[in-house]
UniProtKB/TrEMBL annotation:
Official protein name in the record: PHP domain-containing protein
Transmembrane segments: none
Every Polymerase/histidinol phosphatase N-terminal domain range: 5-70
One term of GO molecular function: 5'-3' DNA exonuclease activity
Pfam families: PHP (PF02811)
Organism field: Candidatus Methylomirabilis tolerans
Length: 290
């Protein structure tokens, strides 16, 4: 049975396989009652998702997953319940879209130099109007027969440090948190541990103090492939830093690397209420300080 809560989902607004309306209907069909659309560096799917949810017994929380970098470590910061119309956020997202395009184009050129030529127009067509990312390039490599799967494309070429990877400009985690806070959102650290083809574990003892000082409010504790032991260890970290333990499937659909089933990660219902409480607290604090 699917979890009633899934707070980490992607649509075609970034690198997901489903349109926002399709994702909402699929979530509703399996019994999800609260979902967060958290596309990479984009909130382009929020309005369509919320419109699709009207009249259904499902709530769509506006969200985002912002890519950041600190000393070579790739760090993703989730934002929940933020104002998509915030001018500073909109300007930052515009720059991120431009940076993603430049990064994607540079990776296609690098792959060409390695002897694996791809048509940039085809990569853009696969993205289908969404924020261009590595999964779109990976799918183009599959189409060309260079690799058998998206997973192989990442492991051979597109992983960080891989021969086809090009680093793009990124915000610092503190800047990402500040952007979310400025848009009245609740920032949370995404997948501090990844279990799969490209395992990694962030140095939380180094990272969290500075992120908490910047205004971090949550950390992803319930995530695909996490064992009970991993979730328990992260729950202890959340309690230590007084962070809301969040979670979700990180569902993309369409054969994306290490994908999980929609609603396939059990997230406690109280998580939503705790995020709402943090939202109220942050909003009140901003009013008082104004």
């Amino acid at each position: 049975m699917a979890s009633r809560v899934d707070l980490h989902l992607h649509t075609k607004a970034s690198d997901g396989a489903l349109w926002p309306e399709e994702l909402v209907k699929a979530a509703d069909l399996i019994g999800i009652r609260v979902m967060a659309v958290t596309d990479h560096d984009s909130m382009g799917g929020i309005a369509e998702a919320q419109e699709a949810a009207s009249g259904l017994a499902i709530e769509v929380i506006p969200g985002i997953e912002i890519s950041a970098n600190l000393d070579g470590d790739e760090i993703h910061v989730l934002g929940y319940m933020l104002d998509a119309s915030d001018p500073s956020l909109q300007e930052a997202l515009r720059r991120m879209r431009e940076d993603r395009l430049a990064q994607g184009h540079a990776m296609v050129e690098r792959l060409g130099a390695l002897g694996y030529s791809l048509e940039w127009d085809r990569v853009m067509a696969i993205a289908d109007g969404g924020s261009v990312g590595r999964p779109h390039i990976a799918k183009a490599l599959v189409e060309r027969g260079v690799v058998a799967s998206v997973d192989e494309a990442f492991s051979r070429f597109l992983r960080r440090g891989g021969p086809g990877y090009v680093e793009g400009p990124k915000l610092t985690p503190q800047e990402a948190i500040g952007l979310i806070r400025e848009a009245q959102g609740v920032p949370a650290l995404a997948h501090p541990i990844i279990v799969g083809a490209s395992d990694y574990r962030l140095d939380l003892e180094r990272l969290l103090p500075m992120m908490v000082e910047a205004g971090l409010q949550g950390i992803e504790v319930y995530y695909k492939r996490y064992t009970p032991e991993i979730s328990a260890s992260l729950l202890a970290v959340a309690r230590h830093y007084r962070l809301v333990p969040t979670g979700g499937s990180d569902f993309h659909g369409g054969g994306v690397v290490a994908d999980a089933e929609l609603g396939g990660v059990e997230v406690p219902w109280e998580t939503v209420e705790r995020l709402r409480a943090r939202k109220r607290g942050l909003t009140s604090a901003s009013v008082i300080s104004a």
